[in-house]
Amino acid sequence: MRNHLFRAVVALCVLSAPAFAQELTAPDVKSNRPTPRTAEKHPDLSGYWKGTRDTKPVGNIGKDLPGFKLPLTPAGEAALQHNLTATIDPESLCIIGGIPRHNASGLPFEVLQGANKIAFLYWYSYFRLIPIDAKRKHSDDPDPSFFGEELGRWEGDTLVIDSIGFKEEKVWIDENANPHSDALHVVERWTRPDFDHIHVETLIEDPKFYTKPLTYSRTWVLGKPDEELQEYSCSENNVDKEHLGFGPGPIRPDGTRGYIDPAPLPPPIPKAPAK
Amino acid sequence: MRLATTLAMASMIFAGAVPLLAHHSFAAEFDATKALRLAGSLTKIEWTNPHTYFYIDVKDAGGNVVRWGCEAGSPGALSRRGFKRGDIKLGDMIIVDGYRAKDGSNLIDARRVTLPDGRIVSGASAGDGGPGNQ
């Protein structure tokens, strides 16, 4: 019995390891390669970017806060309870996740930078296209959208993206169902400290739902030269939507979503030896 | 000792390497207390986004044939694990270990799939927070 279990565990490890080795995040790397620059001498943020495995908890906008505790107002707390008990994760219904949720995601993304615009391309075939023009100002009453009205400008080697005009319905600010309102204001400060890393410092203000501004910072590593986004048609066959419950389910003490103590699966079936 | 070491290695592989990626939380759809093993013949294959679905006919304890849907990761996720569309065809017998949907329907999260050739592949939606994707 003990030998059978041993063989089963070894088989599972061996069979599973290659799969995990090709997952969509990457270990952090040290880099001595310099920041690439455009013809205009700005840092070039272009690349296929993967989250690092030491970014924890992924998907939680409170990652950098003590106890992952968000400073919710009473209205924010009510909105959270609404999300937990009466809404299905919008992203699982193929609704755009928006910002800042995409920056907290575990999924890779791709950046294509031009002289006057920059595009962020996301896993679910969503994109945002941001003008880079320090002279542009926000609209008086922008149409609400998932990414907001985004304006880019350079401050030295930092690309600043200032966004207002967000939706309040069918949005979760992160994968744990935390809310944001239409008063959301996001300031992203993007840098590329070397060839192999991109970094964002994010200021999140939402006085309707949060008593004070939040910060969220994160670093991604450059993917391999042959890695790029692939087609992902989220609504092609979304059988899920008929079966999903409200909210993300339980949140573990480490700030990630999921059960703490799931029942074990039946033991793997050892592969018969080749004849 | 050898077993303990191996279990520890397995634990590290499963716990440390997998990020949160899926388009929905495992816990929003599946019940982690209802682990199942299903063995049946493939009647339908949907190699689609956001999930791949296998449908299998399974004989229950009374000998009745019951159709189950098996939800797996996206085609891209399975492909990266070496599980390609050509690895299965209608009529193949496969074994699926996973967790039943919380709504009680005949839908299972295909956490682990044993293919006709005996290979075992993870069918999980990578990083959904489900068992093995901490």
* Protein chain pair with the most extensive contact, residues per chain: A-B, 67 and 64 residues
Strand arrangement in the largest pleated sheet of chain A: 4-3-2-1-9-8-7-6-5
Q: What low-confidence regions of chain B span 5 or more consecutive residues with pLDDT below 50?
A: 1-20
Total domain units of chain A: 1
Oligomer classification: heterodimer
Strand content of chain A: 15-25%
- Secondary-structure class of chain A: alpha+beta
- Residue share in β-strands of chain B: 35-45%
Largest sheet features of chain B: 5 strands, mixed, barrel
Q: What is the count of helical runs of chain B?
A: 3
Number of strands of chain A: 9
CATH fourth-tier homologous superfamily of chain A? Calycin beta-barrel core domain
Percent helix of chain B: 10-25%
Structure summary, number of beta strands of chain B = 6
Task: Write a concise keyword list for the protein shown above.
heterodimer, A: 275 residues, alpha+beta, Lipocalin, 9-stranded antiparallel β-sheet, 3 helices, disordered N terminus, B: 134 residues, OB fold (Dihydrolipoamide Acetyltransferase, E2P), 5-stranded mixed barrel, 6 strands, globular
